[in-house]
Amino acid sequence: MKKGVVIVNTARGAVMDEAALVSALESGHVASAGLDVYEEEPKVHPGLIANPNCVLVPHMGTWCVETQTKMESWTIANVRAAVTEGKLKSPVPEHAELQ
Is 45 noted as a catalytic residue in this protein? Predict the structure, then answer.
C-alpha cells in the first residue's frame, strides 16, 4: 500500500491483522483507520484504542428496526424454503446438499 493510506473495515474482523495495523499506524505508513469489526471481537487491540488516528465504533450495523425486520423475514423465508422445497436461500458449505 502507498504510504498515508486510510483503511476502513466494515466487513469481517479477521480481514485485518490488528497487530500489523497498529504497527503501520504507529509508523505513519497508514495515516488512519476506521473499524466497526475486530479480529477477536468483542476484544479490541489496545494499540488501536490508544491510537488517536483510529476511529472505532461498535459493530451495530444491523441494530435498527428496519434491518432487524428484514433479517427476520429472510430467516423465516429461508426456513420455509428448507421445509417446503428442501432448498435454502443462503446455503453455507455445511448445507451444500440443500442448494
Answer: no
pTM over 0.70: no
Q: Cα dihedral angle (38, 43, 46, 51), rounded to 10 degrees?
A: 40
SS3 (DSSP) at 80: helix
C-alpha cell of residue 80:
420455509
Name the nearest CA neighbour of 38 among 55, 13, 7.
Answer: 13
Residue 29 is a catalytic residue: no
What would you report as the CA-atom Rg of the chain, rounded to the nearest whole angstrom?
19
Question: Which cell goes with 82?
Answer: 428448507
State yes or no: is 59 an active-site residue: yes
Task: Please write the tens of the pLDDT for every residue from 15-68.
Answer: 899 999 999 999 999 999 999 999 998 889 999 999 999 999 887 777 789 988
Q: Exactly one of 26, 40, 41, 72 is catalytic; which is it?
A: 41
